[in-house]
Amino acid sequence: MPVCDNCKKKWTWRETVFSKLMLSSKAACPYCGEKQYASAKTRKRGGFMVLSVIIPMFVVLLFNFSMLFYIVFGMIIFMVVMGLSPFYYELSSKEEPLW
């Protein structure tokens, strides 16, 4: 779980997921209120996590499964990725360049 770079308190799984769902690169720490940014390492990992959702979907299309299977399979992969993502999330007190 991520740790605030300012107050060093560990965020809960729920706080991390909700901060990610806001689709912003910054979030206020629920404990000290300071703005926290996703680290460059976390943003790079996020790109690979998106690929882990997209690539299996192409495999499903290759085997010509039904649309219902495609949707259910996609939802399951998405939920697994979203459920695991807070465990690799790291915070920074300043916005870091991606490269």
TrEMBL record:
Domain of life: Bacteria
InterPro entries, alphabetized: CxxC_20_CxxC (IPR026369)
Transmembrane segments: 46-63, 69-89
Keyword vocabulary terms for this entry: Membrane, Transmembrane, Transmembrane helix
Protein name: Cxxc_20_cxxc protein
